Amino acid sequence: MVSREHKKAVLHEKLQLLRSITNSHAKKDSSIIKDASNYIQELKHKVQILNQDIASWEQSSSYQNTWPVVTVETVEKGIQVNLDSESDCPGLLVFVLKVFEDLNLNVLEARVSCTGSFHLEALGAESEENGESIDVQMVKQSILHAIENWSESNDHDQE
Q: What pTM was estimated for this model as a whole?
């Protein structure tokens, strides 16, 4: 059984630890707890300010995600490819469709938006002559490689 003195010593030790963490100079236990509470409020306020700074930085005009996000998944009819970019990507569609051609994927359905941003949804199916199953990761890697090639070609065009 733990003695009352031992419990009191453990509590005192924990309060002294709290006092050191919060940089409190208080002597009374209640004052140490009050200082800790104030310290927590200050930290909450700092976190709030940092979150506001992050939000304003993300919304600023200098922040712009120009690299397209690619998702590829297997669906009932074939392979679903989604590409999204916050900036328009002139010429990217040609590079992506070349990947479909190189992988012998027939485009069954496609939706593309290129005004102010770039968005592509495409459903591809394996062509009849291709007996092998298409690997989703291979398709994604091929599209990412095509995006790199597109980016490099745009960099050379701007020089």
A: 0.54
- In a domain, residue 64? The reply is no
Task: Say if residue 38 is in the same domain as residue 74.
Answer: no
Same domain? 144 vs 87: yes
Looking at the structure, tell me whether residues 95 and 128 fall in a common domain: yes
pLDDT (tens digit, 0 to 9) for every residue of the chain, 159 residues total? Answer: 679 999 999 999 999 999 999 889 999 999 999 999 999 999 999 999 888 877 776 665 444 456 788 999 988 888 999 999 888 788 889 999 999 999 988 999 999 988 888 899 999 988 766 556 778 899 999 999 999 888 888 765 554
Measured CA distances, 18 to 4, 7, 13, 27, 80 (Å): 21, 16, 9, 12, 55
